[in-house]
Predict the 3D structure of the following.
Amino acid sequence: METLINFLVPISEFLSENIIFGVVVDIIIAFIGVIVSYIVGFFNNNSKNKNENENENENAVHRYRGPIVLFIVLLVILFVNVFIQTPHYSSPVFKSAVESKYGKLKLTEIKRMTSLDLSYGNDNKNKLDNISDITMFSGLTSLNLANNNISDIGCLSSLPLLTELNIRQNHTLSDISVVAYLHNLTRFTAYSCNIQDITPLSNCPLLEHVSLGNNEITDVSPLFGLVKLNEIKIHNLDIPNYQKDTLKALFPNAVFEW
């Protein structure tokens, strides 16, 4: 179903912007004219004999069948278009989070978005715990999911264009293996989560900024091969001193926090 909708979205967008509105208005006007003409003809026919009435009514049916069928077809297209343009969220909380910040979005608008901020404040009300609907936002390059209750970010594999990802303060989040598929990342912010293993970061050669403080990380060696790093925030981590010394030697111009 999702594949079909993805195929129909660009067609729907073209129809919405170029054809449907004008054609439907024209057909509605024409149909109203047809109905009015039919009503007038009906009352005029009352003065004729029965046979003439039957002939006229039969002719009227044949005369107006084409416009009526065309009108119905256009209505069906219009309703299908509206259905295709409407995003179908599986999570009411996710839907509320999106619409509270961005209003009601059409699916074509969602596909065009490059930045999405669904971070929350310090309260626990309406925090996200399910982000599976994020797959609709396939054009994102920047995503902020900070301070929620997210424990699974596996669905982010459908966002290969991401360059900036902020998942800080999702305190039950421990698995970041999906990051290995986000090869375009330049900024990764994930402090105050429950992360232990940062091996997936080694598959992100474009990383320039990492923020990993206040986690359960004891090994930062996956960062050693990321030659573009210029800002490394690893405060409050229990890592051996020799790894700190290695980082300093590998990245002499980088800004450090530890």
In short: The longest strand covers residues 115-117. The mean pLDDT is 81.
